[in-house]
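Sequence and structure are no longer studied apart. To make this concrete, we show below a single chain and its fold as tokens.
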Amino acid sequence: MLRSVGQGSVTGSGEDPRDGGDPRVAELRAAVSRLRRELAAHPVEFPDRAIAEDELAALAAMATHGTPEIPRLRNSLLVVAAAIGSVSALSRGLSEVRAAVELFGGPPRG
């Protein structure tokens, strides 16, 4: 096991100690990270970009601190989708975040 200053353990297993071994959390963290990078690289400004960036940061924080609350995840997904839903260049990343959120359970039945 290797350890760097300010870093967690490196075991070689590919697991991140922040997710407690929960593959759903790892998938959420990866999907959110990809979409944040895509959004940062997107050259065109749009009205709700700051809202999307803030909510993606909140999702990243939730994924960093263990298993997130499902209602909060769903709310964040709705906010992000509303903010960037019409930007076709980001649709794949948004779909990946949606799929990661759905790993925590399907939509509530009404």
Remarks:
- DSSP finds four helices and two strands in the chain.
- The CA atoms of residues 24 and 103 lie 6 Å apart.
- The two ends are 48 Å apart (CA to CA).
- The mean pLDDT is 84.
